[in-house]
Amino acid sequence: THNADGTYTINGTATADVYFDICFFELPAGSYKLVGCPSGGSWASYIQYIRRVDGQPFTINDNGTGGTGEVTGSEGQLRLSILIYRGYTANNLVFKPMVTTDTSLTYNDYEPYVGRSSFS
Questions:
Q1: DSSP string over the chain
Q2: CA separation (Å) from 24 to 42, 53, 56, 81, 117?
Q3: Tens of pLDDT along 37-75?
Q4: Are 19 and 8 in contact (CB under 8 A)?
Q5: Residue 110 neighbours by CB under 8 Å, 6+ apart
Q6: Using CB atoms within 10 A as the burial measure, which of 2, 5, 67, 119 is most buried?
């Protein structure tokens, strides 16, 4: 469920790996942090991540503790997605996706997107 505040609530058992593409965007060069994955994520349960749309290597992963990465500005279009792995049962799992330059922010610091970017 895409909630009105920009969060996503996931329920159910994944019978296959399930990918939810949240948005597509570009970022200028700089250091970024991806936060908003509920604690307890792993490569066996769920994560959220940023990847290049063109398939070239570049990833920022968040398994509940936040993930950081350097953007050169030449990555092109990026995709922010949630991945629930096959066999995992989600019970009101709330994702709060947020990309920030403030590396101190955590899951609990979520602020809904309001239609403008502080990256430009």
A1: -B-TTS-EEEEEE-SS-EEEEEEEE---SEEEEEE-PPTT--TTSEEEEEEETT--S-EEEESSS-EEEEE-S-S-SEEEEEEE-TT-EEEEEEE--EEES-TT--GGG-----S--TT-
A2: 23, 8, 15, 9, 14
A3: 999 999 999 999 999 999 888 899 999 999 999 999 889
A4: no
A5: 7, 35, 36, 96, 98
A6: 67
